[in-house]
Amino acid sequence: MEYTIKRLIIGIFIVLAVTVILFGIMHAMPGDPIELLAGERVSPERIAQLKAQWGLDKPMYIQYFYWLSRIIRGDFGTSMVTKLPVIELIKARLPYTLLLTGSALIVQYIIAIPLGLLAALKWNSKIDRIVVTLSIVLWSMPNFWLGVLLMIIFGIKLNLLPLSGYSGLKSLILPLLTLSLPSLAGTLRLTRSEVLEVLREDYVLTAYAKGLPKYKVLIKHVLRNALIPVTVMFFLYLPWLIGGSVIVETVFAWPGMGRLLWKSITVQDYAVVQAIIFIIALLTVISNTIGDIVSAVLDPRIRESL
Amino acid sequence: MEKKIGSLILFFILAGAVVAAGCIGGGGTQTSTQSSASSTSSQTQKEVTLVIATPEEIEGTDIQQVSWANIVHDLIFQSLVVYTLDLKGVVPNLAESFEVSKDGTEITFKLPKDAKFSNGDPLTAEDIKKSVERYRNVSPYSEDFAVVDKIIVKDSQTAIFKLKEPAGYLWAVLASVYGAPVNVNLANKIGNEAFNRKAVGSGPYKVEEWVQGSQITLIRNPDYKTHIPFVKNKGPFKFDKIIVRFIPDDFTRVSELKAGNVQIVFGIPLEQVATLKKDPNVQLLSYLQPGIDYIMINTKKPPLDDVNIRKAIALAINRKELASALQNLVRPAYGYLSLAQVGYDEATEKELQTEYSYNLEKAKQLLAAAGWKDTDGDGIVDKNGKPLKLTLMVPLDRPVIKKAAPIIQSQLKKLGINLELREYEYSYIRKMTREGNFDMAMRAYWWNDADILIYIFHSDAGYPWSNPKVDKMLEEARTIPDFTERAKKYGEIQKAIANEMPVIPLFSEYQYVGVRKEVKGVIMGIDGSIYLNDAEIS
C-alpha cells in the first residue's frame, strides 16, 4: 500500500515534469502556429496582433501556469488551428484509435502467446524454426512498407478491401494487420524465450518428477512464471493505445489520434500537442504503476524485494 | 489469481474496443458512411456522389477564420465575382452585375432579387456589408479590405463599396473565395466556434457532416445560382453529394484515384505525374503556381551588399538546366511574377530573360569587378585571402525547392562560390529573413495578384531590402484599376527590383490535379481555380 502511494506521488511529479519539458520544447521550437499558417500577405503587425489574441506575447512561464491552471480544471484549451476546443478534437479521434490499437493488441496477444508457447515446447523442431523465422521476417518489416504492400495486394490487385479511410469494420482489417503483425512478432519471441528459460528451471523438473500431468505443469508452473514479463510489456503498451500510430494512421488515412498529434506538432498547435502528450504521460505513469503492482501480485519474489 | 487478472485485462481491452466501435457506430459517422455507401450502390434513386481527395484537412469550414482555403471552401461559398480563366478580367458570380465608377473609387454590386444563403436565409446587400465587417475582425488577412472606406447599402440588392483610393488589387480578394459573403447573422447567433464547424455561405453545397481527420460530406444547395459567363450550367451542380476526403499520404491518395474510389485528387506528387499521364483512366489537369519560387538575398550583409555579387549569382544560375533536372515540372522565371498572376507582363518577362539568362562569363566578370578572384587556384574565389563562402537556407517542407537546392549549389560552384545548404522549416526561414539572420534563403509565394510583391519588397514588409522608389511604385500600382495599365506598372517595378537583385527568381511550379476520365466538364483557370458547375459523371 505504502509502495503504491509512493509510486503515485512520484507519478504526479513525473507527469508535471513531462508537461514542463514539453512546454519548454514546444515553445523553444522556432515559429508558432500563427506564423506557420499565415500566408505571405499577412503583415508583421497583424501577426503580432493575432499572437496577442492567443496570449503568445506573454512570457513562457505565465503561459505555462495559465495552461496548468486550466488543465487542473479539466479544460484542455482551444486549438489555434481549428479554433475548436481540444477536447472535441480528441473525442472525435479517440474512438477510431481505440478501435484500431485495441483490436491490434488483442490480435497480437491472442496469436503471439499460443504460438510462442508452441515454439518453446517444440524447441528446435521444424515448427519452432518456422515460427521463429516468420517472426524475424515480421519483426523486421517497417510499418509503412507492410501497409503499402497489404494495400497493393488486398486493395488494388484483389480489390477485396477498402484502401483507406474508415467506412465500416471492413476498412479496419488492413490497418489492423499492419499494426499487429510486427508487434506480434515481438511478443511471440518474448513469450518463447521466457517459456524456454522457465522450462529449464529445477522446479519444473521437480514438478514433472512429482508425476504432475503435463498440462498442469505447463499452466501452473511454466506459464505463470513465463508470462510475467509478457504481462509487464502489455502494460507498457497501454498508453500507446491512446497515442495511436502515426505511420499506420497516415498511410491508411485513419482518422485517429496519431495523425492528430503529428499534424498538430507540424503546425505547432500547442494546446492539442500538450493535451495529448499530457494524457499519454498520465496513462504511462498509471499503467506502469499498475504493471508493477500486477507483477508483484504474480510474483511473490518481487513483492518481497519491495 | 493470475487467471483472474489476465481475464480482467482482456475484458477491459475488449470492452474498450467495443465501446470504441460503439462510439463510431453510434455517432454521426454511421449515417454518413451508410448514405455514401447507398449512394454509390443504388443507381435506382439516381443519387450521384462525387468523391474528391485533398492532402490537407481543412482548418475549419468558415472561410473567414481559416488561413488556407481549399476545394471545400470553394464549394461552400460563392464570391461576388470571379476572374476570367486567363485572369485578364473580372466577371460576375454571385452578383448579377457590377460597375466601377470612372475614378475607380466606387464599386457597385447588384445582387439577384432572390439571392439566398444555402440555409435558406435571404442574402441581401446588408449581408455583404456585414461579411466584410466580420472579415476585418476575424480573418488573419483582415487587412485585405483596408482600402474599403465604407459599404453603402443602397437597397437590399445594391451594395456600394466606397474605396479610399482606386484599388486594382482588391479584385484578388473579391474574386476569391476568401472575400465571399458568409451568413453573419447565423455566425453571430451560434458563435464563431459553431460556425467554423458548419459554416453557411451561398455556394453550390452546404455542409452535412465533417468527420474530423477523415472527410467532409457536402450536400447540394438547390438554390444555388451563378452568373459566371464561361460555365454553361448556371444552376445547382449535378452531384447530389460531394465527399471531400483528407488523405495525407501521397501513395494512398493516388492509389484511391487509380482504383476509382476517388474521382478528383488534388496535390498529385511530382514522382507520380509521369505514371499517371500514362494511365488510361485518369486525365491530369495542370496549372502554374500563381507566384514564384525564389532566393532572397540579405542585401545588408557583406559581401552580399554588393549588387555585382548578387547579379553574378543570378547570372550563374542556369534555370533551363534546373528545370530539366526537375523533369520540366517547373517553368523558369526571370521576373518576379508568373503567368498565372494578375499583373504579369509578357514583355517584361522577355526583357528580364535576355538580361539575366545563364551567362557564366559575365557572372565571373562581375565577381572580378567586385574584387573576387580565384588567386590560390582552389576553384573558390577569394578576396583578401578569404574564400567566398555563403549559406543558403533551404525549406525542408517544400519538396520542389528542396530538390532544386543542390543543383544551384553545383551551379554556383562553377562560379567559384562555396554554397553551404542548410535545411529548415519554411516558417523558420521566413522569421530568420525578417530578422536579417541569413545570407541567402529559398522561399516562395502563392497569390494570384501582383500585389503580393508589396508584402516582399515594400519597406513595411520587414525584409532587409527596400528602396523608397520601389515603395512608391508599389503603392501606385495598387491603385491602377485598368488591368493592362497595371501590368505595365508592375513591369517597371520588376525591372527596378531586378536592377538591385535583392531576390533571384528561379521558377514557378506546375501543379497537377488528377481527374478520372468518367468525370467530364471540369473547368480550370490558369491559376488553378476550378469550376465544377458543368461537371458530371458519364
CATH topology name of the largest domain in chain B, in short, is: D-Maltodextrin-Binding Protein, domain 2
Distance between the termini of chain A: 11 Å
Helix residue percentage of chain A: over 70%
Poorly predicted residue ranges of chain A: none
Number of strands of chain B: 24
In what range is the share of β-strand residues of chain B?
15-25%
Q: Note the main sheet of chain B.
A: 12 strands, mixed
Shape annotation of chain B: globular
- Largest sheet descriptor of chain A: none
Task: Please tally the helical runs of chain B, counting DSSP H or I stretches of 4 or more residues.
Answer: 17
Q: What does the radius of gyration of chain B come to?
A: 26 Å
List low-confidence stretches of chain B: 1-6, 25-43
Shape of chain A: flat
Q: What is the N-to-C order of secondary-structure elements of chain A (H for helix, E for strand)?
A: HHHHHHHHHHHHHH
Q: How big is the Rg of chain A?
A: 24 Å
Count of helical stretches of chain A: 14
Question: How helix-rich are the residues of chain B, as a percent range?
Answer: 25-40%
Mean pLDDT of chain B: 90
Q: Class of the largest domain in chain B, according to the CATH hierarchy?
A: Alpha Beta
